[in-house]
């Protein structure tokens, strides 16, 4: 089978020909239809993630496809894949035939585009957990979202509106009125500039740090303003994210939620890894066989 492999941290991925994996107890074989290229894959590739598969490895933490062999699912079943070490502690999804722990599989609704099935998990569950598990968003609250053009940001905007919140993608739009909740997906100076727009007693969920990973903290101001800084860690919140998947997939299937996806051939993983770092790109990247 064809598989993308990484031989060292930061070294460009290459397309290899590898032997097909064989069925094993506790594992499922899935014919890949689309495999996501996301920021987490870049972090693992850079060597900066807290874990990584043994080198050389097949990257990819998410995908969608059809079951070839599994003790849990019938052949032909459409599934999404994510978690249980896929692409972080063991080989991942950027290959024609994925060898995954049974626990990594979930069912995809009939008719849902496979590329969307590969790409939905991180932005949809992150936005949902940020708003509902961490922030406890209520109808009528005012919400500011930074990075609202991004995958997580745009999904946060959609889900917050669905809950009846009043949502702003830029602080200036809030017309001088403070917000109850900030969801920051950008970090660095963007987060620093957005925080003063949160009302005293409000909360800020910290999701990403593309623009910088440091935040100066004046402790006196922090105590006086009493804004709760709440981290999102989707690896720790995996169970809450997975629990939300069926209803998120239902809303993606009927178009109530929208997420853009850009396809790259499997052999162009390096281009996809580069594309997701470009300012102004829209949606998520997936590799297709
Ligand atoms: N904590 C967690 O568990 C968790 C879960 C999921 C994702 N994340 C992280 O969340 C972040 C966002 O993910 P994503 O999939 O939404 O990424 P994305 O689709 O690439 O979107 C990035 C967003 O950030 C904006 N941006 C990037 N650099 C910026 C800068 N220097 N100044 C201002 N805005 C900037 C982009 O604006 P433009 O459109 O103008 O370029 C875009 O709106 C990533 O860092 C990701 O690793 C964390």
Describe this protein's structure.
With 289 residues, the chain is α/β, with parallel strands linked by helices. It folds into two domains: 2-120 and 259-288, Quinone Oxidoreductase, Chain A, domain 1 (Alpha-Beta Complex); 123-231, NAD(P)-binding Rossmann-like Domain (Rossmann fold). 27% of the residues lie in helices and 27% in strands. It contains eight helices and 14 strands. It has helices spanning 39-46, 114-119, 121-134, 151-162, 188-194, 219-225, 238-253, 269-275, and strands spanning 2-5, 14-17, 27-37, 62-69, 78-82, 97-101, 105-107, 142-146, 166-168, 179-184, 198-206, 228-231, 261-265, 284-288. The strands form three sheets. Strands 3, 4, 5, 6, 7, 13 and 14 form a seven-stranded mixed β-sheet that branches. The chain has a five-stranded parallel β-sheet with strand order 9-8-10-11-12, with helices on both faces. Helix 6 (219-225) links the parallel strand 11 and strand 12. Helix 3 crosses helix 4 (151-162) and helix 3 crosses helix 7 (238-253). The longest helix is centred in the C-terminal third of the chain and has 16 residues, at 238-253. The chain starts with a strand and ends with a strand. The mean pLDDT is 97. The site of NADP nicotinamide-adenine-dinucleotide phosphate has 23 residues, from helix 3 and helix 4. It holds the Pfam family ADH_N. Residues 10-287 form the Enoyl reductase (ER) domain. InterPro entries: ADH-like_N, ER, GroES-like_sf, NAD(P)-bd_dom_sf, Zn-ADH-like_protein.
């Amino acid at each position: 089978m064809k598989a993308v492999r990484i031989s060292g941290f930061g070294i460009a991925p290459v397309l290899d020909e590898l032997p097909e994996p064989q069925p094993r107890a506790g594992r499922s074989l899935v014919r890949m239809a689309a495999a996501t290229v996301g920021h987490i894959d870049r972090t693992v590739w850079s060597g900066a993630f807290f874990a990584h598969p043994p080198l050389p490895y097949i990257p990819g933490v998410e995908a969608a496809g059809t079951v070839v062999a599994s003790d849990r699912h019938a052949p032909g079943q459409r599934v999404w894949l994510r978690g249980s070490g896929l692409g972080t502690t063991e080989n991942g999804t950027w290959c024609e035939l994925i060898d995954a722990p049974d626990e990594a599989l979930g069912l995809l609704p009939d008719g849902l585009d496979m590329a969307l099935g590969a790409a939905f998990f991180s932005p949809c569950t992150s936005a949902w957990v940020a708003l509902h598990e961490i922030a406890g968003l209520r109808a009528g609250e005012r919400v500011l979202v930074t990075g609202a053009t991004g995958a997580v940001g745009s999904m946060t905007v959609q889900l917050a509106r669905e809950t009846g919140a009043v949502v702003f993608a830029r602080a200036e739009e809030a017309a001088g009125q403070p917000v109850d909740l900030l969801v920051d997906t950008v970090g660095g100076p963007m987060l620093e500039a957005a925080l003063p727009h949160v009302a005293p007693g409000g909360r800020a969920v910290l999701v990403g740090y593309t623009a910088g990973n440091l935040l100066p903290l004046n402790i006196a101001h922090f105590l006086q303003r009493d804004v709760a800084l709440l981290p999102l860690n989707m690896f720790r919140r995996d169970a809450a994210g997975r629990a939300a998947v069926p209803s998120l997939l239902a809303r993606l299937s009927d178009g109530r939620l929208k997420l853009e996806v850009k396809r790259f051939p499997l052999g162009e993983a390096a281009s996809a890894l580069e594309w997701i770092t470009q300012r102004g790109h829209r949606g998520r990247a997936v590799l297709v066989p």
